[in-house]
Protein backbone atom coordinates (compact mmCIF):
# COMPACT_ATOMS: atom_id res chain seq x y z
CA UNK A 1 0.00 0.00 0.00
CA UNK A 2 1.32 3.40 -0.98
CA UNK A 3 1.29 6.00 1.73
CA UNK A 4 0.89 9.58 0.56
CA UNK A 5 2.58 12.25 2.59
CA UNK A 6 0.33 15.11 3.66
CA UNK A 7 1.57 18.32 2.07
CA UNK A 8 -0.83 20.85 3.58
CA UNK A 9 -3.87 21.52 5.67
CA UNK A 10 -7.17 22.78 4.28
CA UNK A 11 -8.56 25.74 6.22
CA UNK A 12 -12.09 25.20 7.47
CA UNK A 13 -14.65 27.63 6.07
CA UNK A 14 -15.68 28.94 9.49
CA UNK A 15 -12.04 29.66 10.37
CA UNK A 16 -10.93 31.26 7.08
CA UNK A 17 -11.97 34.74 8.19
CA UNK A 18 -9.40 34.74 10.98
CA UNK A 19 -6.47 34.41 8.57
CA UNK A 20 -4.76 37.35 6.92
CA UNK A 21 -4.83 37.03 3.10
CA UNK A 22 -1.36 36.91 1.57
CA UNK A 23 -0.96 39.15 -1.49
CA UNK A 24 1.17 37.09 -3.86
CA UNK A 25 1.70 39.29 -6.94
CA UNK A 26 3.30 42.74 -6.96
CA UNK A 27 -0.02 44.41 -7.88
CA UNK A 28 -1.80 42.61 -5.07
CA UNK A 29 0.85 43.62 -2.56
CA UNK A 30 0.56 47.29 -3.57
CA UNK A 31 -3.21 47.05 -3.31
CA UNK A 32 -2.98 45.43 0.14
CA UNK A 33 -0.54 48.11 1.32
CA UNK A 34 -2.81 50.92 0.10
CA UNK A 35 -5.87 49.29 1.71
CA UNK A 36 -4.20 49.13 5.10
CA UNK A 37 -3.10 52.77 4.83
CA UNK A 38 -6.58 53.91 3.77
CA UNK A 39 -8.30 52.04 6.58
CA UNK A 40 -6.37 54.08 9.15
CA UNK A 41 -7.71 57.37 7.73
CA UNK A 42 -11.34 56.49 6.97
CA UNK A 43 -12.87 58.44 9.91
CA UNK A 44 -10.86 61.58 9.12
CA UNK A 45 -11.60 61.29 5.39
CA UNK A 46 -15.31 60.90 6.10
CA UNK A 47 -15.24 64.06 8.23
CA UNK A 48 -13.39 65.98 5.49
CA UNK A 49 -15.92 64.90 2.84
CA UNK A 50 -18.82 65.76 5.16
CA UNK A 51 -17.45 69.26 5.78
CA UNK A 52 -16.94 69.91 2.07
CA UNK A 53 -20.34 68.59 0.95
CA UNK A 54 -22.11 70.60 3.64
CA UNK A 55 -21.12 73.69 1.64
CA UNK A 56 -23.12 72.30 -1.29
CA UNK A 57 -26.02 70.68 0.54
CA UNK A 58 -26.99 73.64 2.70
CA UNK A 59 -29.87 73.42 5.18
CA UNK A 60 -29.53 69.63 5.23
CA UNK A 61 -28.36 67.72 8.29
CA UNK A 62 -26.39 64.64 7.35
CA UNK A 63 -23.27 62.66 8.13
CA UNK A 64 -20.85 60.78 5.90
CA UNK A 65 -19.69 57.21 6.39
CA UNK A 66 -16.78 55.70 4.44
CA UNK A 67 -15.86 52.02 4.14
CA UNK A 68 -13.57 49.91 1.99
CA UNK A 69 -15.36 47.74 -0.55
CA UNK A 70 -14.82 44.00 -0.27
CA UNK A 71 -15.44 41.36 -2.93
CA UNK A 72 -15.62 41.57 -6.71
CA UNK A 73 -19.27 42.37 -7.43
CA UNK A 74 -18.91 46.01 -8.47
CA UNK A 75 -18.40 45.15 -12.16
CA UNK A 76 -21.74 43.33 -12.34
CA UNK A 77 -23.41 46.15 -10.36
CA UNK A 78 -22.13 48.71 -12.90
CA UNK A 79 -23.42 46.59 -15.79
CA UNK A 80 -27.02 46.85 -14.57
CA UNK A 81 -29.30 49.51 -16.09
CA UNK A 82 -29.79 52.80 -14.27
CA UNK A 83 -26.17 53.41 -13.27
CA UNK A 84 -24.10 56.58 -13.66
CA UNK A 85 -20.29 56.42 -13.80
CA UNK A 86 -18.34 59.68 -13.59
CA UNK A 87 -14.67 60.21 -14.41
CA UNK A 88 -12.75 63.00 -12.67
CA UNK A 89 -9.20 64.00 -13.71
CA UNK A 90 -6.81 64.67 -10.80
CA UNK A 91 -3.30 66.13 -10.80
CA UNK A 92 -2.23 65.29 -7.23
CA UNK A 93 -0.43 63.12 -6.22
CA UNK A 94 -0.04 62.07 -9.89
CA UNK A 95 -1.85 62.76 -13.14
CA UNK A 96 -4.62 60.21 -13.06
CA UNK A 97 -8.39 59.71 -12.85
CA UNK A 98 -10.81 59.08 -10.03
CA UNK A 99 -14.27 57.60 -10.51
CA UNK A 100 -17.67 57.88 -8.84
CA UNK A 101 -20.68 55.63 -9.52
CA UNK A 102 -24.24 55.65 -8.22
CA UNK A 103 -27.67 54.49 -9.32
CA UNK A 104 -30.34 56.77 -10.75
CA UNK A 105 -32.23 56.81 -7.46
CA UNK A 106 -29.15 58.23 -5.74
CA UNK A 107 -28.80 60.80 -8.54
CA UNK A 108 -32.40 61.95 -8.07
CA UNK A 109 -32.00 62.18 -4.29
CA UNK A 110 -28.78 64.19 -4.49
CA UNK A 111 -30.48 66.58 -6.90
CA UNK A 112 -33.43 66.89 -4.49
CA UNK A 113 -31.13 67.72 -1.58
CA UNK A 114 -29.21 70.27 -3.65
CA UNK A 115 -32.27 72.03 -5.06
CA UNK A 116 -34.98 71.72 -2.45
CA UNK A 117 -33.82 69.86 0.61
CA UNK A 118 -36.59 67.24 0.44
CA UNK A 119 -36.42 63.80 -1.13
CA UNK A 120 -39.02 63.13 -3.82
CA UNK A 121 -40.49 59.76 -4.56
CA UNK A 122 -38.37 57.31 -6.54
CA UNK A 123 -39.06 57.44 -10.28
CA UNK A 124 -39.15 54.08 -12.05
CA UNK A 125 -36.32 53.56 -14.53
CA UNK A 126 -38.68 52.89 -17.44
CA UNK A 127 -40.42 56.21 -16.76
CA UNK A 128 -37.18 58.22 -16.91
CA UNK A 129 -34.42 56.38 -18.80
CA UNK A 130 -32.16 59.47 -19.04
CA UNK A 131 -30.81 62.00 -16.56
CA UNK A 132 -31.32 65.72 -16.89
CA UNK A 133 -28.47 68.16 -17.45
CA UNK A 134 -29.10 69.61 -13.98
CA UNK A 135 -28.79 66.19 -12.31
CA UNK A 136 -25.55 65.45 -14.17
CA UNK A 137 -24.13 68.85 -13.21
CA UNK A 138 -24.97 68.33 -9.51
CA UNK A 139 -23.38 64.87 -9.43
CA UNK A 140 -20.30 66.21 -11.23
CA UNK A 141 -19.87 68.93 -8.60
CA UNK A 142 -20.33 66.46 -5.73
CA UNK A 143 -17.75 64.11 -7.25
CA UNK A 144 -15.27 66.96 -7.71
CA UNK A 145 -15.77 68.48 -4.27
CA UNK A 146 -15.46 65.22 -2.34
CA UNK A 147 -12.24 64.38 -4.19
CA UNK A 148 -10.86 67.83 -3.43
CA UNK A 149 -11.65 67.25 0.25
CA UNK A 150 -9.78 63.94 0.20
CA UNK A 151 -6.81 65.53 -1.59
CA UNK A 152 -6.65 68.40 0.86
CA UNK A 153 -6.62 66.04 3.84
CA UNK A 154 -3.96 63.74 2.38
CA UNK A 155 -1.72 66.17 0.47
CA UNK A 156 -2.79 69.70 1.56
CA UNK A 157 -3.56 70.41 -2.11
CA UNK A 158 -6.68 70.38 -4.29
CA UNK A 159 -6.48 69.54 -7.99
CA UNK A 160 -9.60 67.61 -8.99
CA UNK A 161 -11.14 68.85 -12.24
CA UNK A 162 -14.87 68.67 -13.13
CA UNK A 163 -16.20 65.14 -13.57
CA UNK A 164 -17.81 63.87 -16.77
CA UNK A 165 -20.05 60.90 -17.46
CA UNK A 166 -18.46 57.73 -18.85
CA UNK A 167 -20.43 55.91 -21.52
CA UNK A 168 -18.65 52.56 -21.24
CA UNK A 169 -19.47 51.65 -17.66
CA UNK A 170 -16.67 49.25 -16.73
CA UNK A 171 -15.11 48.91 -13.30
CA UNK A 172 -11.71 50.68 -13.07
CA UNK A 173 -8.71 48.39 -13.28
CA UNK A 174 -8.66 46.06 -10.30
CA UNK A 175 -5.58 46.35 -8.06
CA UNK A 176 -4.88 49.79 -9.59
CA UNK A 177 -7.76 51.57 -7.85
CA UNK A 178 -9.06 51.38 -4.30
CA UNK A 179 -12.90 51.23 -4.20
CA UNK A 180 -14.69 52.99 -1.33
CA UNK A 181 -18.37 53.04 -0.45
CA UNK A 182 -19.74 56.43 0.60
CA UNK A 183 -22.99 56.67 2.56
CA UNK A 184 -24.72 59.99 3.13
CA UNK A 185 -26.86 59.38 6.21
CA UNK A 186 -30.05 61.40 6.75
CA UNK A 187 -32.61 61.06 9.53
CA UNK A 188 -34.57 58.26 7.87
CA UNK A 189 -32.78 57.68 4.58
CA UNK A 190 -29.32 56.90 3.25
CA UNK A 191 -27.85 57.74 -0.16
CA UNK A 192 -24.95 55.55 -1.27
CA UNK A 193 -22.38 55.72 -4.02
CA UNK A 194 -18.95 54.30 -4.82
CA UNK A 195 -15.63 56.07 -5.35
CA UNK A 196 -12.47 54.62 -6.91
CA UNK A 197 -9.18 56.26 -5.90
CA UNK A 198 -5.75 55.51 -7.44
CA UNK A 199 -3.46 53.53 -5.16
CA UNK A 200 -1.08 56.52 -5.19
CA UNK A 201 -3.51 58.29 -2.83
CA UNK A 202 -2.50 55.90 -0.06
CA UNK A 203 0.75 54.31 -1.15
CA UNK A 204 4.04 56.17 -0.88
CA UNK A 205 5.76 53.51 -2.96
CA UNK A 206 6.38 54.52 -6.54
CA UNK A 207 5.44 52.42 -9.52
CA UNK A 208 9.06 51.34 -9.94
CA UNK A 209 9.88 50.32 -6.38
CA UNK A 210 8.99 46.83 -5.16
CA UNK A 211 6.81 46.34 -2.11
CA UNK A 212 8.40 44.35 0.66
CA UNK A 213 6.67 41.16 1.73
CA UNK A 214 8.37 41.14 5.12
CA UNK A 215 5.55 43.18 6.67
CA UNK A 216 3.04 40.41 5.93
CA UNK A 217 2.54 37.97 8.79
CA UNK A 218 2.44 34.49 7.28
CA UNK A 219 2.89 32.61 10.54
CA UNK A 220 -0.81 31.64 10.88
CA UNK A 221 -0.86 30.04 7.42
CA UNK A 222 -0.28 26.31 6.94
CA UNK A 223 2.30 25.18 4.42
CA UNK A 224 0.18 25.25 1.27
CA UNK A 225 2.06 23.59 -1.63
CA UNK A 226 2.30 25.40 -4.97
CA UNK A 227 4.00 24.25 -8.17
CA UNK A 228 6.68 26.68 -9.33
CA UNK A 229 9.31 26.72 -12.06
CA UNK A 230 12.85 28.11 -12.10
CA UNK A 231 14.06 29.01 -15.58
CA UNK A 232 17.81 28.49 -15.74
CA UNK A 233 18.37 28.89 -19.47
CA UNK A 234 16.59 29.68 -22.74
CA UNK A 235 17.98 29.04 -26.22
CA UNK A 236 16.75 29.31 -29.80
CA UNK A 237 17.72 26.36 -31.99
CA UNK A 238 17.35 25.63 -35.67
CA UNK A 239 15.64 22.55 -37.00
CA UNK A 240 19.03 21.19 -38.05
CA UNK A 241 20.42 21.60 -34.51
CA UNK A 242 17.35 19.86 -33.12
CA UNK A 243 17.81 16.95 -35.53
CA UNK A 244 21.46 16.67 -34.54
CA UNK A 245 20.48 16.70 -30.88
CA UNK A 246 18.12 13.80 -31.49
CA UNK A 247 21.10 11.87 -32.88
CA UNK A 248 23.02 12.38 -29.64
CA UNK A 249 25.06 15.47 -30.40
CA UNK A 250 25.63 17.96 -27.61
CA UNK A 251 23.63 21.20 -27.69
CA UNK A 252 25.58 23.97 -25.89
CA UNK A 253 23.62 26.30 -23.63
CA UNK A 254 24.55 29.25 -21.42
CA UNK A 255 22.94 29.64 -17.99
CA UNK A 256 21.31 32.94 -17.09
CA UNK A 257 23.20 35.05 -14.57
CA UNK A 258 19.83 35.91 -12.98
CA UNK A 259 17.30 33.10 -13.08
CA UNK A 260 13.54 33.55 -12.98
CA UNK A 261 11.25 32.04 -10.36
CA UNK A 262 7.85 31.58 -12.01
CA UNK A 263 4.38 30.76 -10.73
CA UNK A 264 1.49 30.25 -13.15
CA UNK A 265 3.66 31.47 -16.08
CA UNK A 266 4.38 34.76 -14.31
CA UNK A 267 7.81 35.77 -13.05
CA UNK A 268 7.67 36.72 -9.38
CA UNK A 269 11.34 36.76 -8.34
CA UNK A 270 14.84 36.56 -9.74
CA UNK A 271 17.71 34.81 -8.02
CA UNK A 272 20.70 32.51 -8.14
CA UNK A 273 20.97 28.74 -8.41
CA UNK A 274 23.80 27.06 -6.53
CA UNK A 275 24.88 23.54 -5.66
CA UNK A 276 24.07 22.10 -2.26
CA UNK A 277 25.00 18.84 -0.62
CA UNK A 278 21.68 17.32 -1.68
CA UNK A 279 21.36 18.95 -5.10
CA UNK A 280 20.55 22.44 -6.36
CA UNK A 281 19.13 25.33 -4.34
CA UNK A 282 17.56 28.65 -5.37
CA UNK A 283 18.07 31.93 -3.51
CA UNK A 284 15.80 34.95 -4.17
CA UNK A 285 17.78 38.12 -4.75
CA UNK A 286 15.14 40.52 -6.10
CA UNK A 287 11.41 40.95 -6.63
CA UNK A 288 10.35 41.20 -10.26
CA UNK A 289 9.13 44.62 -11.47
CA UNK A 290 7.82 45.84 -14.81
CA UNK A 291 11.27 47.22 -15.67
CA UNK A 292 13.13 43.99 -14.89
CA UNK A 293 10.62 42.02 -16.95
CA UNK A 294 10.94 44.37 -19.96
Automatic annotation (TrEMBL):
It comes from Rheinheimera aquimaris. Signal peptide: none annotated. Residues 223-288 form the Flagellar motor switch protein FliN-like C-terminal domain. This is Flagellar motor switch protein FliN-like C-terminal domain-containing protein. Coiled coil: none annotated. Gene3D superfamilies: SpoA-like. InterPro entries: FliN-like_C (IPR001543), SpoA-like_sf (IPR036429). It comes from the Bacteria.
